Amino acid sequence: MQDHAVTVDVSAGAPRLSFAPVYNAAVGFIDRHLAAGRGDKLAIRTNHGEDVTYHALAERVARAGNALLDLGVRPSDRVMMIVKDCPAFFYLYWGAIKAGIVPVPVNTLLRAADYRYMIEDSGATALVYSPEFAAEVDAALAGAARKPARVLKADGDGSFAAHMARAATTLAPAATGPMDDCFWLYSSGSTGRPKGAVHRHRDIAHTAALYAVPTLGIGEADVCFSAAKLFFAYGLGNAMNFPLWVGATAVLSDERPSPEMTFAMIERFRPTIFYGVPTLYAAQLRALETATCDLASVRLCVSAGEALPADIFRRWKERTGLVILDGIGSTEGLHIFISNTRDHVRPGTSGRVVPGYSARIVDEAGREVADGEQGTLLVRGGSVAAYYWNNAEKTRATMIGDDWLVTGDTYMRDADGTYTYSGRSDDMIKVGGIWCSPIEIEGRLIEHAKVLEAAVVGRKDDDDLVKPAAFVILKRAGDAGEALRRELLEHCKSGLARYKYPRWITFVDELPKTATGKIQRFKLRD
Ligand code: 3UK
Hints:
- There is one protein chain.
- This protein is α/β, with parallel strands linked by helices.
- It has a domain at 437-525: 2-Layer Sandwich (GMP Synthetase, Chain A, domain 3), CATH 3.30.300.
- It has 15 helices and 28 strands.
- Bound molecules: 5'-O-[(S)-[(2-aminobenzoyl)oxy](hydroxy)phosphoryl]adenosine.
- 5'-O-[(S)-[(2-aminobenzoyl)oxy](hydroxy)phosphoryl]adenosine binds at residues 187-188, 233-234, 304-307, 326-331, 335-336, 350, 407-409, 421, 424, 516.
């Protein structure tokens, strides 16, 4: 095989990937498009009206790699990126990879204490950040025991962009192998410190060839817009890696995702695939009661990050005519490994295993459970992270060998192979000795016409026994009161196994969520 080549064999059903012994992921995702005659095609479009062709992208990626090397960053060093969604993210990420340097893109919504921890933990030798985040970055650096040798703003005077402008326009790809460290993503986790999940050069190609091509049917003609940002593994695949795999176009906005922002982007850039999270779809549905959005260009919507309630799926389909494909992925798995598909959608479930991945549901002793029973989900596939940086104990508990990953999610499989999510393993509630899923109770609550969102956690009653407690956001806050509380109780009792009704209902204005939109039930428990 030629250096840097990857082949996808689809003759055996599930795609199988083979990599040349010398394989640098940047060649296939960036340079290949020039030889394929795609140089003048738009790779990136932005809300600021900046258009970047595949030719310009390849040149700037080479410049970015050279700039890092010129700055004294060496292959295998880490470069931390606190960069908003913009073309410079692509240049830095792929430029580092091409030079054999390991990019570590991190969540741009964090605070100084988080950045300080990640700077120290990663031992990054360089840090590049968008000027917008200067206050948090400066504070993080001021307190850090171990500082990157090079700290640069992404643009402006003396910035990384200025170094790129002086750097050479060609760069030979570092002779890495498919199993070499390629990039890291910090996994937020519901408890404890963030952990750096180390991904290899082979991982990105697996997510594109196993999931994006067969499940989304993504091709060169697609235009991808993701409300989830690039720093999130979900957004990184959606709006960068998937379009780059097939030579499609990515559309980026550096603004906060809101119904208004996403509607404006959709009408202006006419994407064919739209990627959101359940909280956003719910907010968009609410906005569509008074606003309109021309969604004619969109052929497919995708949801991940948390379970998509069946009711939101149905309302979205009713309102827009579009199907939302819910699928579960994770930072450690890199992208979606169980998903609904265009020809098999079961609302309220995560769908079936993406061909090429394997999954097992096991009990506490590690034995596979029968269909219809709940257990912990394990998945296996060619995109699973190699290990957590500097954390042998969590690595042993999570990456259990041979590309198997312990997700920490509780799932149930039906006889037809459909997987239904029932919460993080640690969010599950035992009521009267029976496992009870907060997700199921939340799903029932939001079926009620007056409920916008709900979160359920376990709370101890007077007997010290755990029972479900619900926090509810109403569509109209003015409806809150004893009458509605009783109505919701009846609604739950009539639609759920009796023991599952929430014993407490608290009306709230907002729910604690992670930057990526997941309800932080552990905060509600406190
Ligand atoms: C939960 C879901 C039910 C689940 C992600 C797509 O979310 C992503 O990565 P994270 O590391 O979180 C992983 C955890 O989130 N989850 C994600 N999707 C679903 N639960 N239904 C879903 N559809 O607890 C999982 O373990 O932030 C999602 C692609 C890449 C990703 N990194």
